[in-house]
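Form 7-S
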Amino acid sequence: MSEAPVPKRSLNDRWSSVSLARRVMIAAAIWGLIVLIGGAIALSAVYRAQTLSLIDEDLEQTLVTLSRELTREDAFLPDGRVTDTGRAILASDARFQTQYSGYYWAVVGVTPEFEIAADFRSRSLWDEPVPATPELIARVARMPGITQYSNFPGPAEQRSRVAARSIIVENRATPLVLVAAADRTPNDEATTRFRNLLIGTMVALFGGVFAAMLLAVRYSLNPLSRLEADVAKVREGETQKLSGDYPAEVRPLTEELNKLIEHNREVVERARMHVGNLAHALKTPLAVLRNEAKGQTQLDDVVRRQSEAMQTNVEHYLKRARMAARAEAIGARTDIRPVLDGLARMLNRLFDARGIEVTVEGSARAIFRGEQQDFEEMAGNLMENACKWARSEVRVTLTDTPQALVITVEDDGPGLTPEQREGALKRGVRLDETTPGTGLGLSIVTELAELHKGSLELGDAALGGLKASLRFPRP
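Output:
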């Protein structure tokens, strides 16, 4: 038979099970990354634009200087050719005198069709082409006085920023196009360094902010951890209610939990009272029936047997109801070792004539999370049953670990076969009719153990007889 497929959990279900601290940190991490990455991109773009604007301002100043020098009266001859004075413009600026220095200018003459006719340029440009495309030259020539900017592969594989403007001079039929260019490679490298530095700074800032937020979240959620510990103390019976000094956001929850704990106690007390009332109400009619059926007739015999069966069932289910009410009580706890030592002393006196010795071993600090009466009922039944069948020795071992609480009762009697062990746990089954009892002992122990989330197991004892183990897993 194939196994049924495990239903897949939806994303919403998986997110609902995530802790509050993890939710806050995931949301903070996502939002922090968005802000920091967006900030890094925006700041890099601003820095790039700012440095580029400085280059454009410098190129604009070069164009202004070119325009001023070329509009002097001695810059051109009457036929429109440039004089030596005009060719000497900007000679005082060393940036334009060094070959491939990164700073260039050119003055371009165009034909009536706005094609390049001739040019003269700064010494830094040497014999390289004018750093502008024919399309840019034509576009600028058609719109005199307007500066246009562009990027162009400059000399020596430089990345150049270009500014171009056309001017109209006397004695020339066509405008002159002034071109100024600067190598933008240092600007791009500075932008890259700034971006890398900014990313490193943002990463460090994000790490610091995230660590601070983690500490803040843990500090903020600390009252919930304290509340969890206090609720565990109430459940284990160390305290009766939540009484810590909690923040205003948590205080309403603690008040409601205290009301719930008190309500649980009231319900348990009412259940106990009703069970006691029911027991008294049933015992009298059953006693009357048994007293009236003292004759020897068949009817008397039937009434006696049925009333005894009713009495047995009433006692069983009333006892179980009382046990269930006690098991549901919050905060009940019992020190185990004193109870076991007391039972051992009582049984040693009771079975002294048969030479039975009952010993108790194990932890002195173990705690049973339940009513003492319930634990006495379970341990007492097992220890008394072991004494009935033992030859000389009964050993009780108490083992308390973080995983489970185990109480083991062993005897050196005849023991039980696997089939007998299974039958012994059934209600009303007696393996030896010569031994006094109702056959309810082990079944009551089993039911009471299950009410406290535990179990009863039977096996072979190291002493040779029966081993009965009560196991209560730790939450």
